[in-house]
Amino acid sequence: xxxxxxxxxxxxxxxxxxxxxxxxxxxxxxxxxxxxxxxxxxxxxxxxxxxxxxxxxxxxxxxxxxxxxxxxxxxxxxxxxxxxxxxxxxxxxxxxxxxxxxxxxxxxxxxxxxxxxxxxxxxxxxxxxxxxxxxxxxxxxxxxxxxxxxxxxxxxxxxxxxxxxxxxxxxxxxxxxxxxxxxxxxxxxxxxxxxxxxxxxxxxxxxxxxxxxxxxxxxxxxxxxxxxxxxxxxxxxxxxxxxxxxxxxxxxxxxxxxxxxxxxxxxxxxxxxxxxxxxxxxxxxxxxxxxxxxxxxxxxxxxxxxxxxxxxxxxxxxxxxxxxxxxxxxxxxxxxxxxxxxxxxxxxxxxxxxxxxxxxxxxxxxxxxxxxxxxxxxxxxxxxxxxxxxxxxxxxxxxxxxxxxxxxxx
Length: 410
Ligand SMILES: [Zn+2]
What we know:
Elements: E1 9-11, E2 20-24, E3 32-35, E4 48-49, E5 63-64, H1 66-72, H2 82-93, E6 106-107, H3 109-122, E7 128-129, E8 132-133, E9 150-151, H4 152-164, E10 166-167, E11 175-177, E12 192-194, H5 195-210, E13 244-246, E14 259-262, E15 283-287, E16 297-299, E17 304-306, E18 319-321, E19 325-329, H6 330-335, E20 340-342, E21 360-363, H7 373-379, H8 384-389, H9 394-397, H10 401-404
Antiparallel strand pairs: 1-2, 2-3, 4-9, 5-6, 7-8, 7-10, 11-12, 13-21, 14-15, 15-19, 16-19, 17-18, 20-21
Helix pairs in contact: 2-4
The structure holds zinc ion (ZN).
């Protein structure tokens, strides 16, 4: 179908009943208005595809095009095959499953979710053609909202991706092994992190070494493999996202150091602190190699340190005064760039040393306010298909990292 050349075309914006009107000269009569929708969804300025989930016994509010009307025996409220065309594009880009029950022509929850994911991704700089990066400048990202509503701006962006041959950026961020002395891959530790995380972390390790401290291994947990997650269990830890590193806990053993831990760091930034150390963040002091005053800061007030290991179940286990000497504030060294942060202890930290979490640091760069677990897992090469095969639901995958994953500890 094509729009006649003659006459003026105006677009209707009447909330979803997608029609364009064209003024056509009809012989010897007044101009008559004939509804002629453009052939393709991206050509229609008044496009407004949306979905509202029904609650309280109400039916879902879906959109239906001519293809959907035939397939699902519903009344069309969207002309031509706009929804079918959009769904075809979303499948090509990797945002809608070929097995979706809404194919073709029904704009329901699955299609709206695919649109939301696409919009969120289009707002980032990451782009890929096949498996090759083709990122855009920050000024060129999609400026619309990520609300699952497909209006003209989203339609234009979808078509831009199709024309540029961009696809969902699966595996856009490479992973690699940390190159840190003493850190090696074993059955208990996979020191694989995102390339950007490794680059930043290795810089910190070097700076700390130059100042007489140490961040050498062997490390604890680093990468946790989603593929071994048992069905439905949580992936709400930045270890799954290749963003977290657990320091060497043995360096805080037996009162010998070189690490000494103090729950004096208060609550980590962003947390509502109660000032009572309910779930404190830790200050890690590292005894410097030289103790002649050329490295570190002198601590002679003997603040109280906590033991790494205590007798399980004993309240307020082993504490002792910090030996007088020169120390480097490791927490500060790691957090000063703002790219890494610590997490808080779990509530039972006073009786369960595994809950102290002083050793856990995570990379927090590049997380938007609405970045989801799935967004992040896709960036490191784990597809939605894989996640679903591991029992992850939409709700699991749609967890907002900044809201629910930064402080839980793990
Ligand atoms: Zn950890």
